[in-house]
């Protein structure tokens, strides 16, 4: 079977689909969708998150401008991490006698979940939050390499 045997069937279809998503206008549309979900104008309350990797750990960073540390919740599991942010707003209006005449309360929760490419040790996690940037360092699970006899 030659290398060209994939031509004319499934190989051509995959090549055509690859070109379709990398040419204008489709490429521009996909970039616009990505930008929408990472922008502050996103009505779904999403926030930008990035995952980077070193030899022994993963570093997860999330941009959370205007969020207080108390509003953030982290859940780390061997396969994934979930970052949740809760926004609570309370509006109260009083009359001259300091009696509440109108009260409105709203709550909005947004979260992002990232899967780790490899299993992690969820017991040894360090997180810091400064100037609207959340950084979470998660150690990879160490395996054991053995010699084959």
Secondary structure blueprint with pairings:
Layout: H1 10-22, H2 26-38, E1 49-53, E2 57-63, E3 72-76, E4 80-94, E5 100-115, E6 120-130, E7 133-140
Antiparallel strand pairs: 1-2, 2-7, 3-4, 4-5, 6-7
Summed up:
By secondary structure, the protein is of the alpha+beta class. It has two helices and seven strands.
Q: Write down the Rg.
A: 24 Å
Structural class comes to alpha+beta
Low-confidence segments, ≥5 residues, pLDDT <50?
none
What does the main sheet amount to? 4 strands, antiparallel
- Spatial order of strands in the largest sheet: 1-2-7-6
| Order of helical and strand elements | HHEEEEEEE
Q: Please report the distance between the alpha carbons of the first and last residues.
A: 36 Å
**What percentage of amino acids are in beta strands?**
35-45%
User: How much helical structure, as a percent, in the residues?
Assistant: 10-25%
Chain-averaged pLDDT: 80
The strand count comes to 7
Number of helices: 2
Based on Cα principal axes, name the global outline: flat
What does this structure look like?
With 149 residues, the chain is of the alpha+beta class. It is 17% helix and 45% strand. The protein is built from two helices and seven strands. A four-stranded antiparallel sheet has the order 1-2-7-6, with no helix packed on it. The chain has a three-stranded antiparallel sheet with strand order 3-4-5, with no helix packed on it.
Keywords:
149 residues, alpha+beta, three-stranded antiparallel beta sheet, 17% helix
């Amino acid at each position: 079977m030659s290398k060209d045997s994939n031509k004319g069937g499934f190989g051509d279809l995959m090549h055509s689909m690859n070109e379709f998503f990398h040419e204008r206008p489709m490429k521009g549309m996909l970039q616009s969708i990505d930008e929408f979900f990472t922008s502050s104008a996103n009505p779904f309350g999403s926030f930008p998150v990035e995952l980077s990797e070193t030899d022994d750990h993963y570093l997860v960073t999330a941009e959370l401008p205007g969020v207080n540390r108390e509003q953030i919740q982290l859940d780390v599991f061997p396969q994934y991490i979930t970052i949740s942010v809760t926004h609570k707003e309370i509006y109260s209006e009083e009359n001259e006698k300091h009696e509440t005449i109108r009260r409105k309360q709203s709550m909005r929760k947004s979260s992002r979940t990232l899967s780790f490419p490899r299993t992690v040790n969820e017991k040894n996690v360090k997180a810091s939050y400064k100037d609207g940037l959340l950084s979470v360092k998660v150690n990879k699970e160490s395996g054991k390499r053995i010699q084959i006899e």
